[in-house]
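User: Could you check the structure of this?
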Amino acid sequence: MSAAIQKLQHVRRAERRRPLLVVVALLLSLVAIFAVRVLLGSYTVAIPDFFAILNGQSIPGASGARFIVLTDKLPRAVLGTLVGLSFGAAGAIFQLLFRNPLASPDIIGISTGASLGAVIGIVFFGVGGLALSGFAAAAALLVAALIMVLASGGGNTGGRFILMGIGVAALGAALINYLLTRMALPNAQSAALWLTGSLGPANWERIRLVAVALAVLALAVTAICRRLHLLAVGDELAHGLGLPVRATYWGGLILAVLLTAVATAAAGPIAFVPLISGPLARGLLGGRHSILASALVGACIVVAADFVAANYLPGGNLPVGVLTGMVGAPVLIWLLTRSRNEGR
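Assistant: Sure, the predicted structure tokens are below.
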């Protein structure tokens, strides 16, 4: 009996350590993928040369190395990391709120709303930078509020939110297409590239804006994280435990929308990253939810996909959204199939 108890205690200790081990493994994976994105590809950079460039030194026989590293490879890797963290965390929060693996901002219209706001800002106001992020965030919040109003009343709010969001996403996509037809051709081409999801426009000013916004939002998510996880037990039980359920829903929803808006304004609606990150993280964690693990998975996906799309897809230097869209579609089909089987 004592041996069995000791074995059970050992298993429980291993299960308690598992989240920390997974997070550490994901951090190391992100560092490795980041290094590959910066150092390898069609133009390779040696590690000593990379640190020499960061120190402002010139590289003999490689006059263009500094320009390539500091204006292309490194900014794209940094922006991809920040955007991936935002999308991954946003997807995890939505899935926690509605207890549904399909509750993702790119499925339920939040990314489309942010895109619509950004396109309106570009077409009618010619904005960029922080102002563009403001337009995207405002439109995403309005779309989320609209969906919440349409889905309110009765039970199964999460299911209705997803269905209403899909409908609103279709309407938003139609409006975006209409605006694209009214743009001048050069602007339409730029907007179409942005709507695909691309890290091509990465620069240090944009990175600073995203980093500041993400730092503020990360503090807010940390403050509300425990409450969000309590929602997983169900609204009635969470309310019985003293959790302000409605306030937590709205607080989590606003944070997830803002994370989506910031990432979308910076790099466009990179397809399926919020949807994929949560289920992959839960698979690594044995079914547990983790916003941090989901955010790290999202960062790994974006940086790795940008590396492949920029160097190894036919056509060369394609937007990252092209690859995530191709990979994400089969994952969506898998999630739908699994949800149907679990519902039987």
